[in-house]
Amino acid sequence: IAQVDLPGSPQQLFVHAERAVVYSSLGRKQTVVLLYDISDRSAPTLIRRFELTGRVMTARRIDNAVHTVIDTATQPLPLHYYPAPQLCKSPTVESQRQTAIAAFEQVRQTNLELIRKASFQTTFPEYVEAGVAPARRDCSQVYRATEGGVGFVSLFSFDLTNDQQTPAFTS
User: Fold this and answer.
1) Interior CA angle at 85 toward 76 and 100, to 5°?
2) Which residue of 53, 103, 145, 156 has the fewest CB atoms within a 10 Å radius of its CB?
3) Torsion of the alpha carbons at 108, 114, 118 and 124, rounded to the nearest 10
4) What's the mean per-residue pLDDT of the chain?
5) Strand 152-159 to strand 45-53: parallel, antiparallel, or no bridges (unpaired)?
6) First-to-last CA distance in the chain?
7) Would you put residue 130 in left (φ > 0), alpha (ψ -120 to 50) or beta?
8) Is the per-residue pLDDT at 38 higher than 90?
9) Are 154 and 125 in contact (CB under 8 A)?
10) Where are the extended beta strands (E) located within 26-105?
């Protein structure tokens, strides 16, 4: 029997035939998935290492397939919802109304500029294998919940026995 140093805090283990999958948490924002060849139990060999954005919600192995559900919190944009509280300083109701309209329009313009400058591609969850991230996904691979939330739930799947196959990843 061997002892293997693992990064972070080990969370889960799957063993199938001559392969072992270890999930290790690197805090709340990153999970490492390690695939080992354990045919020689005294000297396990690391075959693949995946770094996932987020934390594991659950994982399952079905035959050769390993499916992992990841929860990734995102930092929402610092949008503004109300103008500075100087709306009632105008002398008349009509001028207060015009001041309020102008102030809310300024808030809207500020928010539009923040949205224009934001890079949503960098906020999408991703995985890295061997230090290389796959090509950025477009919005067709990202699904939006109908209610609330500023995070992502992703499904990451790979084949235990096919080391050349690209994992499937959907958010």
Assistant:
1) 90
2) 145
3) -60
4) 84
5) unpaired
6) 38
7) left
8) yes
9) yes
10) 30-37, 45-53, 55-62, 65-72
